[in-house]
Amino acid sequence: MAKLAFIGLGLMGTPMATRLLEAGHDLTVWNRTADKTRPLTDQGATAASTPMEAIAGVDAVITMVTNAEALEQVVFGDNGLAAALAPGQLLIDMSTVGPDAVRSVASRLPQGVAMVDAPVRGSVPQATAGKLAVYVGADLSGFQRVEPILAPLGTLHHVGGLGAGAATKVVVNSTLGAAIAAFGEALALGDDFGLDRSVVLDVLSDTPIASTVEAKRANVESGSYPASFKLSLALKDLNLVTQIADQNGRRLEVAPASRDWLEQAAEAGAGDLDYSAVIATITT
Ligand code: NA7
């Protein structure tokens, strides 16, 4: 088992760090809001007071923070990881930040420090159950190095070299935005026809968006949207999708439309709710 540091104990980081601890890894944790380290220290993790302090003597450090700015902060900010990372240590970023941010961070790490990008598909229930899909961007030796560390989190997919994991996650989340917006629009159409919502939900459970309907039906029926995956983060990801497409001169129609719906929902105050709260905006 490895000696690890885990940086970022948000909705995803907490259950992921818990799985690593339960699997027998030796874990030191750090979170910007210090009281979120408590559930981990109660189970035997050590809390550090800075990212820099967290990585003393570890084999690898895992980061799971909001976005590229947060990653920049924990790696290169005051008391950040970069100031203490030593040759032979490994940085595994599991946040969704896009491939440019991954390569930019990797290029500025101290000599002899390797980086692997390993973002995940799945939200809190999958993280808790160790059933995430983990998209690993690394050379073969990097993949072999992270495999035993990350195995307790779910199924690892070696999708290419550095940055390929981040790119794969952008691809995956473009479909997530499309599916939730299609779900909302289908419900809105059903409402306009005067159809019974439960009938429409049954029918949509047998369409190409079935898995989204299954995952989010309870939210729609209860009208409450507790966050498994924050809407603000889905919006961040759809912004990544559209920015990267623009850079590549790639015309997309569906992703920008779903991005616009998420933006409207965020403006209406749903940013900290589950991303499925966009359905409430669409059907209003
Ligand atoms: P959350 O629940 O919003 O958690 C975000 C985490 O990132 C949380 O630990 C934050 O600390 C931390 N964070 C955010 N900004 C910073 C800065 N500037 N410095 C240090 N730490 C920071 O998100 P999820 O866990 O759902 O998702 C994490 C990633 O996986 C994200 O990229 C998703 O798209 C996928 P806080 O507790 O607020 O102090």
Automatic annotation (TrEMBL):
Residues 163-280 form the 3-hydroxyisobutyrate dehydrogenase-like NAD-binding domain. Residues 3-155 form the 6-phosphogluconate dehydrogenase NADP-binding domain. Coiled coil: none annotated. It holds the Pfam family NAD_binding_11. The keyword Cell inner membrane does not apply. InterPro entries: 3-OH-isobutyrate_DH-rel_CS (IPR002204), 6-PGluconate_DH-like_C_sf (IPR008927), 6PGD_dom2 (IPR013328), 6PGDH_NADP-bd (IPR006115), HIBADH-like_NADP-bd (IPR029154), HIBADH-related (IPR015815), HIBADH-related_NP60_sf (IPR051265), NAD(P)-bd_dom_sf (IPR036291). The keyword Membrane does not apply. SUPFAM superfamilies: 6-phosphogluconate dehydrogenase C-terminal domain-like, NAD(P)-binding Rossmann-fold domains. Keywords: NAD, Oxidoreductase. PROSITE patterns: 3_HYDROXYISOBUT_DH. Gene3D superfamilies: N-(1-d-carboxylethyl)-l-norvaline Dehydrogenase, domain 2, NAD(P)-binding Rossmann-like Domain. PANTHER family: CYTOKINE-LIKE NUCLEAR FACTOR N-PAC (PTHR43580:SF2), OXIDOREDUCTASE GLYR1-RELATED (PTHR43580). Belongs to the HIBADH-related family. This is 3-hydroxyisobutyrate dehydrogenase. It comes from Kribbella orskensis.
